[in-house]
User: Fold these one by one.
Assistant:
Number 1:
Amino acid sequence: MVAMDGVQKWFGDLHVLQDINLHVTPGEVVVVIGPSGSGKSTLCRTINRLETIDEGTITVDGEKLPEEGKALAGLRADVGMVFQAFNLFAHKSILENVTLGPIKVRKKSKDEAEQRARELLARVGIEEQAGKYPAQLSGGQQQRVAIARALAMEPKVMLFDEPTSALDPEMIKEVLDVMVDLAQGGMTMVVVTHEMGFARTAANRVAFMADGQIVEENTPDEFFTNPQSDRAKDFLGKIL
Ligand code: ADP
Ligand code: MG
């Protein structure tokens, strides 16, 4: 579903992605973990072309990433992204936040988009908030709206970049529960997170990044109990 081959990227002198080879099969959940500044967000952002790459190839569902225009909008719809900051449209209702993309990009009718949005809001447990505005919701609720909004585009893959790190502790679980449900429902997911519980429950594979490289990849069990590289041992020693 996602294939990154020989991907290289520089920010000026900084070699931020160094020969990244990452393949995610349909329905697979890959957790990307690693120290701050290692390139995790940049990796995620290259998959929906929020960042360009300098060398290598990235394909989503077998298609090379388009450069611009309509094809790029189509790719962005196919690749849902949920960020640390919720990025909801502040002046639109929750329902409008979820229907806007499907109406504009997927050319759905308003009725159809609203019906689907209500189903998705129910799925993430906040159907009764549909008429409110983002500022009236808690952080956990806003993040669940962001997930519903991404799902409304019927993406082929979902990217999550530290979706719970800006949340108060008591709200983390309600967001992780939605993500676990998605994973168990067969969604292809790339998830940057330090939530070990999520990785152990939902991930098929952990990719450990340091200094712009994927240093090791393993099952969550193997990675957490038996990390191979010194970098991974050192990192796990700090967070566990
Ligand atoms: P992570 O998500 O693992 O913390 P990032 O991908 O955000 O890492 O950043 C990797 C490195 O690239 C960091 O050193 C960061 O400062 C740098 N970086 C990120 N975005 C930019 C940018 N737009 N311009 C220049 N440097 C950047
Ligand atoms: Mg980051």
Note: The longest strand covers residues 14-24.
Number 2:
Amino acid sequence: MTDHSVIPVKPELAQGNRVDAARRAEMAERAARDPEGFWREEAGRIAWMTPPTRIKNTSFEGDVSIKWFEDGVLNASVSCLDQHLAERGDQVAIIWEGDDPNSDSKVTYRELHERVCRMANVLRSLGVKKGDRVTLYLPMIVEAAVAMLACARVGAVHSIVFGGFSPDSLSSRIQDCDSTLLITADQGRRGGRTVPLKTNADEALRSCPSVKNVIVVRNTGGGVPMEEGRDHWWHTLSEAAAADCEPEPMSAEDPLFILYTSGSTGKPKGVLHTTGGYMVWASFTHELVFDYRPGEIYWCTADVGWVTGHSYIVYGPLANGATTLMFEGVPNYPGVDRCWQVVDKHKVNIFYTAPTAIRALMREGEAPVKKWSRQSLRVLGSVGEPINPEAWLWYYRVVGDERCPIVDTWWQTETGGILISPLPGAVDLKPGSATLPLPGVQPALVDGEGQLLEGAADGNLVILDSWPGQMRTVYKDHERFIQTYFSTFPGKYFSGDGARRDADGYYWITGRVDDVLNVSGHRMGTAEIESALVAHPKVAEAAVVGMPHELKGQGIYAYVTLTSGEEPSEALRKELVAWVRKEIGPIASPDAIQWAPGLPKTRSGKIMRRILRKIAANETDSLGDISTLADPTVVEELIGNRVG
Ligand code: WTA
């Protein structure tokens, strides 16, 4: 399956690159030898009110404390907006492309600055102060970026909840961080359908007493009830607000945002990122990895509800004065050629998407791609899950006409930005490999006992030392931060991913080694789906595992034990799928539900997921040792009733 062929840097295409192989090596060497000096210089890429003198103060031991640029003072919105006004105030900052191909708009840096200032004033007038949490539940519209930057401007900590999440998921995320204000829209649009955001928000807010005010963007114009005293129209408030706003001075280690992400146990964790290090990392990686050049049009297809949207639609590109394209829709609406149509329409130079989208488009053949010229494309990126060599090669040959380097970027919500990726024009490519760490990043592989592995090896992917964009803590739960990331292999950051390193030192990410699923590039904890299932009155017990899925990468396979007296039926299966969608959101819909009168458990009652994964993957000839099970006969029964 693995394709070892190397695609060397094409010198003619690398012309004008900021970083070539020699420069990359130089940067990596300097960052390793003199991290203080290296990062002091890189910090200069963003705007400081007081430049930092203390650069790195981090420890992965004991209580785990991570501080970068700690005596620096700045405001992220100034780096993204004010700093560009003199030089490129009239340059387009955001190109917005609607779900409907006939709707688009452009916002210059000057206009964006004004809109952010107005909204920042609105937030202040509603009592939002530095450190307060504001939840955003928005579609992919310009107001989402405005709202993020407005929070940053007043020092509020934003927590974005993906618009595809259910009211329950929204309310638990609001409750966890006690937001005082919610920003949402009447409705969203995706693939020709509307998403009832305000209705969902109203339902969520019934159990969120901390929220005193709701700001509602009139987006589709679909009528929604407004609660007197609590709900306010964005446009009314915004029009009445002043167009300039003093930015709040923030210490580098003041929080910028919280973003909830799934882990192997319990509820989603509030990943906390702070201001200085995150901004430096977002800017540094966006420029290096995409070889961003002034004037270029850059398009990342992610949603701002995920970390990719935070770092590579908003903060990184805007810090670098780029023109960033924000797309409201989906890759296959109204046709499967939508991406390439948009590329031609806006002359996109850099395109960054997920393997799941590439696989889905690949299935439609070359014709929809070839219909458009794609001449503007220069660099192609991939993120979110391992990209199989077949999809990689299709992306390279068909979409990029063998002209555009592919940057397969490995990173996580926790890492704030890209850690392992080729740099275009500087690193030879291997289809399916995220290749080499960025300068300043020290990945390593360890075995199950935490022993460092040398040379070509297969193991658990850890990072040995801190980088500026690293998450600082789990919101209000530092103990969980230490437990989750630094206890498995003490003194090292454990990513939760497995990886292989080949003889050239290239990393091949093999996927999660914990109970986290990656479904179409979306992270999901099996525990979350299980607790949604057992919340159904007819379900006694549930175990969820991932199964290989051609398009999604991983699908969701659920084993369900019904309460006594309940009979399995097709109607009940559908009911449970709908139930999970309602509890968590459509992205968590199980692909398969197998009725399981019994689950394979050890004598101490622990479910042996290894066996359940094998059955779901239809690899039943390699189940391994099942003699430790309390009742080995359940395995035969499960194999016999496998679904799919
Ligand atoms: C997976 C998304 C292989 C990985 C930015 C990681 C990848 C999880 C890649 C984080 C890649 C992300 N190759 N796997 N290029 N990029 N992953 O937090 O399992 O939503 O741990 O961040 O996605 O997902 P998250």
Note: The chain has a mean pLDDT of 96.
